[in-house]
Amino acid sequence: MIHATNMRVLALFPILVALVLPVLAHHSFEAEYDFNKTLTVTGTVTKMEWMNPHAHFYVDVKDASGKVTNWNFELGAIPVLLKQGWRKDSLKVGDQITVEGYLPKDGTKSMANARRVTLPDGRRVFGGSSADVADK
Amino acid sequence: MAATLLLALARTPATAQDQVKITGKIITPPGAVAPKGAPPAGPKGPVPRMPDGKPDFSGIWNGQRALPNQEPPIMLPWAEKLTAERTNNYSADDPEARCLPGGVPRAAPYHYQLVQTPKLLLMLFEGNIHSFRQMFLDRREHLKITEPLWYGDSIGSWDGDTLVVDTVGFNDKFWFDMAGHPHTTQLHVIERYHRRDFGNLDIGITIEDPGTYSKPWTIQRVSTLETGIEMSEYVCNENNSDVLHLVGK
User: Fold this and answer.
1) How many CA atoms lie within 13 A of A98 on its CB side?
2) In this complex, is the C-beta atom of B128 within 8 Å of any C-beta atom belonging to chain A?
3) In this complex, is the C-beta atom of A117 within 8 Å of any C-beta atom belonging to chain B?
């Protein structure tokens, strides 16, 4: 379901590591995604693609009418994710999660960059997104 | 940077019937943001040495980071115009985003591993694009390059404890950075590597290219040592689905 969240941010593991490392990407964030179009969705994990240059995961999201749409969310690169504490099995099929992210500029449906993910146990983790870049 | 991120994290996610809410811009186009400070220092300790007494650069290093307060390059008009176009289009045409090599001296966010022998220094890139550079320490003359190269032909010599790497023979395809600074095949790069202590590698770079820059462009960078990790695999072309969506403006 699509809803608002206002939780405290919790990183998976050493928080400062995630904050101080440069999270450059192999492509420019704003060449693809729009900082002005944010979204928050909750749904069920259906697949993890643990690949480079970016990992992706897929989430079934049910709207108010009960219609289910499968969303494709982009994470960071594997080396960056590993450093942030992510592992291939950090998201398991069937997990109920909430994703905060950004929509693509080209209008592609059901696709977004995942900036932060709230795991089933309530931890809110970074997605290794190049949105979290202050100095490129 | 941490302060900036904390501010960003304090933002409340959007709520909207259509899943989309307009929020303010939080960063400027890529390449337009200069570093505000030096990265955190690496671990302290003595410089490891080769059997012949030269510094041993071997190790896994964090991606090169530019130091703050550096002079921007003085470009010829065509290069200034092209860089502005690339930057303003959010670097959508960056070859690196097509899984092509970053060239020299592109700074990448991923680790690189230096493997040093008396005659050869290898730079193994973890990320874009999981390839390698060879820096020959036993050759004093450049090869006659007939086909321009992504990484050029690198020969290294010692100036005390500093390794001076001289590289020519480049193609003109790669960008120096996400801002899109260009070059021609006249490019000549001189890198000075100095392992300040166990965990900090100072890198001075001089870019000479009279076809692009009206005077040599110097860049100071630093890499810090990573211990207790191994390089991870990175096969850029395995799932580069982004390239279809890089629309820029």
Assistant:
1) 19
2) yes
3) no
CATH 3.90.1170.50 fits A24-123, yes or no: no
Q: What is the DSSP letter of B21?
A: B
Residue-range domains of chain B with CATH:
46-236 (2.40.128.20)
Q: Which chain B residue lies closest to A20 (C-alpha atoms)?
A: B2
ipTM above 0.90, yes or no: no
Asked whether residue A126 carries a pLDDT value surpassing 70, the answer given is: yes
Whether the CB of B38 is below 8 Å from some CB of chain A: the reply is no
**Spacing of C-alpha B158 from chain mean position:** 22
Q: Where are the domains of chain A?
A: 24-123
- As a whole-number percent, the residues of chain A with pLDDT over 90 amount to 55
What value does the mean pLDDT take over residues A22-43? 81
DSSP string, chain A: ------PPP--SS-HHHHHHS----SS-HHHHEEEEEEEEEEEEEEEEE--SS--EEEEEEE-TTS-EEEEEEE---HHHHHHHT--TTSS-TT-EEEEEEEEETT--TTEEEEEEEE-TTS-EEE---GGG-S--
Which residue in this structure is represented by tokens 């694009």? B129
Stretches in chain B below the pLDDT threshold 50: 1-30, 32
